[in-house]
Amino acid sequence: MSSVSEEVSDGVPGAESALAAPLPGALPEALRAELVAFRRDLHMHPELGHQEFRTTAALKARLEEAGLEPRVLATGTGLICDIGVPPAGDRDGDRVGAGRSTVPRPMLALRADIDALPIPDTKLGVPYRSTVPDRAHACGHDVHTTVVLGAGLVLAELAKKGQLPFPVRLIFQPAEEVLPGGATDAIESGALEGVGRIIAVHCDPRVDAGRIGLRHGPITSACDRLEVSLDGPGGHTARPHLTTDLVTAAARVATEVPALVARRADARSGLVVAWGRIETGHAPNVIPQHAELSGTVRCLDLRAWRDAPDLVHGAVQEVADLYRAKSEINYIRGVPPVVNDATISDLLRDAMIERRGLHSVEDTEQSLGGEDFSWYLEHVPGAMARLGVRHPGERAARDLHQGDFDVDETAITAGVELFTAAALLDAMR
């Protein structure tokens, strides 16, 4: 594989003068081509959460080729890699979480998620279509991973020349698509030790490649999973008054619980219960003994998310009791909303403008999708940007989590430039 050439660091003469000098120029063609090839390789070989062994090995090999010392997480997939800090042998330990950081200034972390989705790749006519049945990088994690890798290679080259004023950590996190998210595994493995700020991107098919979307405050929603079981003695449909009419009870839970929750929460919190599955009964003249419902609880507000389990439990219990059904509730915590720190959002905005001009940044709305990047923000301030991946001028964008999802690969270069510029601007603040 090619190395980062001198062109990457043009105009950055040294560690001290780098703070006043222009930021690094455009990526050399060799590196751009390598990163596109790396992304396509990941796209052809998608791996589900906690199974990303091939992806982890590929990242580890490339970072080691660049002279870095990546460390695989304790879970066996995913890794972290520090740039611009003493070699592992000069610290107390070379495992993630072993020893204390010797870096006086907390590091800036760049985070990527590396897992894929359990859906088939339905794209036609592209050479990098998934080779694994019913597996696809349909959320853009292959792009996120490649962007952080590319930024790491650029920053490593600057560090070799003494032109990286402060250290940076790369976090390649597994299992973002698995509740409550692989971010918790990474944190438990020590990924945030010595980290003071963290940034990330997420592909957005509504934004043109070469641009990013930003906002202060919440940018995603909280997302939890809800499973409800209802039980009764069962009976004949001719005599529903003598038993628990469980089908009606399940129907009432399905319709009344979302309404009750909506009325009992602040409307500004955007707290929504939505069902994806309801199942009960096997015969038209038999009142069943068991019913199941499952769905999601989404919330735009962090405080309301913390209160949501009690509110939902109370609503389900109230409706079930009214229809004499015994209820069992399994409320599975997913992720809180991603709440962007204003200062770090401004860092991303300034970095992108520095590299690509005012036109390269646009405001974005808060999404109802969930993202486990939020778990990092429970510990350190950070921000996530929407990375544009739509072909400029394209009208019908392919949505996330769809089998035909694809990206304009020039977004990779834009993402690398964003992260490298953010790391250098961060050093000035």
The CATH top-level class label of the largest domain: Alpha Beta
User: What topology, given as strand order, has the largest sheet?
Assistant: 1-2-4-3-5-16-6-15
What is the total number of structural domains? 2
Which word captures the global form?
A: elongated
Cα-atom radius of gyration? 24 Å
Layout: helices, strands, pairs:
Layout: H1 29-44, H2 53-65, E1 71-72, E2 79-83, E3 107-113, H3 141-160, E4 168-173, H4 183-188, E5 195-208, E6 212-214, E7 217-218, E8 222-231, E9 235-236, H5 246-264, E10 272-280, E11 286-287, E12 290-299, H6 302-322, E13 326-335, E14 339-340, H7 342-356, E15 361-363, H8 374-377, E16 382-390, H9 410-426
Parallel strand pairs: 3-4, 3-5, 5-16, 6-15
Antiparallel strand pairs: 1-2, 2-4, 6-16, 7-14, 8-12, 8-13, 9-11, 10-12
Helix pairs in contact: 1-3, 3-9, 5-6, 7-9
How would you concisely characterize the structure shown here?
The protein is of the alpha/beta class and 429 residues long. It has two domains: 6-219 and 338-426, Zn peptidases (Aminopeptidase, 3-Layer(aba) Sandwich), CATH 3.40.630; 222-335, Alpha-Beta Plaits (2-Layer Sandwich), CATH 3.30.70.360.
Describe the structure in your own words.
The chain is α/β, with parallel strands linked by helices. The chain folds into two domains: 6-219 and 338-426, Aminopeptidase (3-Layer(aba) Sandwich), CATH 3.40.630; 222-335, 2-Layer Sandwich (Alpha-Beta Plaits), CATH 3.30.70. Helices cover 31% and strands 22% of the residues. It is built from nine helices and 16 strands. The chain has helices at residues 29-44, 53-65, 141-160, 183-188, 246-264, 302-322, 342-356, 374-377, 410-426; strands spanning 71-72, 79-83, 107-113, 168-173, 195-208, 212-214, 217-218, 222-231, 235-236, 272-280, 286-287, 290-299, 326-335, 339-340, 361-363, 382-390. It has an eight-stranded mixed β-sheet. Helix 1 packs antiparallel against helix 3, helix 3 (141-160) crosses helix 9 (410-426) and helix 7 packs across helix 9. It is elongated. Residues 1-21 and 88-103 have low confidence and may be disordered.
